[in-house]
Amino acid sequence: VPLSTEDTNALLTNDLIATSIETTYLRHTEMAFTDMNDNYAAAIANEYALQAENYTAENTPPELRQFLLDMDAGAIVLMFSETIKAASVDPTQISLISAPANELSTNNSYTLNGGLITTTEDSTYVTIALSDGDLYGLQQIPTLCTSRNRTYISITNLTALDVSGNGNIPIFPIAAVIAHDFVTDVTQPQLT
């Protein structure tokens, strides 16, 4: 039976169940399924739960599905295909590009030098507060991150780990992904 993404992520974030054959059991109510004659299954209660006969550890690498860049708030939000260890995210493995390209250059891209991971819980969403230096660096390239159409992302396979320890699928510059959403910088500068 295929599990939904939501159910899979719930299992992956729980260290007490479905981590090995010893921690994987099945129980269900009579309403779980029916046979071809619409007869309900016999329920299996907790005390009679069936232990798995086989177990395959989760080994699918996470994939960046989309991202948004908020130049006004100075934040980037990454949305992955599965739960990511928030503490594993490395912003220095992220490059923002004005358009897909064969290679990165100082004219069309900027690789982050740091940032603060503000997401504390493991999740499919990770928010990074950009450093002042990175915000300034992005603003110095006139063709970069000025609109959604000029905001693409490239990441290495060292950007994030899922909760099973699998590294993410890289996104090469030639296959860079366009921002799902983009917020322009509208805050007026203030003399301090």
Describe this structure in words.
The protein has 192 residues and is mainly β. It is 8% helix and 24% strand. The protein contains 2 helices and 11 strands. The chain has helices at 5-12, 132-139, and strands at 25-26, 50-51, 64-70, 75-84, 94-97, 109-111, 116-117, 123-129, 152-155, 177-178, 181-183. The strands form 3 sheets. It has a 5-stranded mixed β-sheet. A 4-stranded antiparallel β-sheet has the order 6-5-9-10, with helices on one face. A two-stranded antiparallel sheet has the order 1-2. It is elongated and about 70 Å long. The termini are far apart.
Sheet having the most strands: 5 strands, mixed
Estimated helix fraction? under 10%
- Based on CA inertia axes, which overall geometry fits? elongated
Give the helix tally.
2
**What class would the helix/strand composition place it in?**
mainly beta
Strand order of the largest sheet: 7-8-4-3-11
Distance between the termini: 61 Å
Mean pLDDT: 92
Q: Hey, roughly how much beta strand do the residues contain?
A: 15-25%
Rg calculated over all Cα atoms: 22 Å
